[in-house]
Specification:
This protein is of the alpha+beta class. The protein has an eight-stranded mixed sheet, with helices on both faces. The protein binds fe (ii) ion.
Length: 270
Amino acid sequence: MRRFRLGKSCIRLRKGYRPRFRFTDGERIAALSAFLKLKVDHKTVLCRDTNTYRALRDFLLNSGYSPVYETERVGEEKTAMATFACLNPLTGERLAVVLGMSAPNEVSHAQAPFAYGFAGKPQKDAQTYMQHLALRTTDIEKLKSYLESKGAEFLTPIYKDKDSFGPLLQSFTRELFDDEWFFIEFVQRDYDADTLGVGGTQFVQNTVKSLYVSKQEEFREWEKTGKKRKFLDGVPAKERDQLLRDILAHTEPKGYVQTVAPISRHVKLN
Ligand SMILES: [Fe+2]
């Protein structure tokens, strides 16, 4: 006997029997448009303070990661962030480490998880928070239009920029969950991003600054009203799970997104 998960219920089926009324995983992937076959591009972790930021940076450099981007301060007049990004040349994993810098009378949005907590409670022991996951698509315009046609909302337009690997297009979603600060970045790189070596450190400020300003505006609004407009608020409730599953469940490497803490706390992918 094999067990198939079907929505919330579980049914027992004879071995070898395939239900006709539902895609199998393989068929569903084949049915998904090419722009929905996503790959993990990088993830970005926020740090509580300078010690954590330095320790993470030090640990990553000592673990064989090569620096690909670094900036000491980018943001607005009052608040800003420092960013360090690196690449593991063996595994291809890219990580960005961010330190939000608040002012005496304004919290930086990159300090939000530490100033306001997450997962519904203050988190005084948390030193890090997974802020966003970047997923690579083959066609960001089509992907964005498709998701918007379903009711999904993005925080930013599609930015055109360049990083140390080459030209890239990026767009950032609104946050996914209440009591969290997590969002998704979609990127398109028109070259084989998996086979590239380390490109050397570069300083690309435009998109980073635009994103900082948009996030800080969104955050100020939340501080004022206590409300936020989420990524899937405009999608009919019964379609939200499937849409999120179409985005996340088939992302390669398989199983990676389940390791990202805000997702694992809030989404059941299988
Ligand atoms: Fe990013």
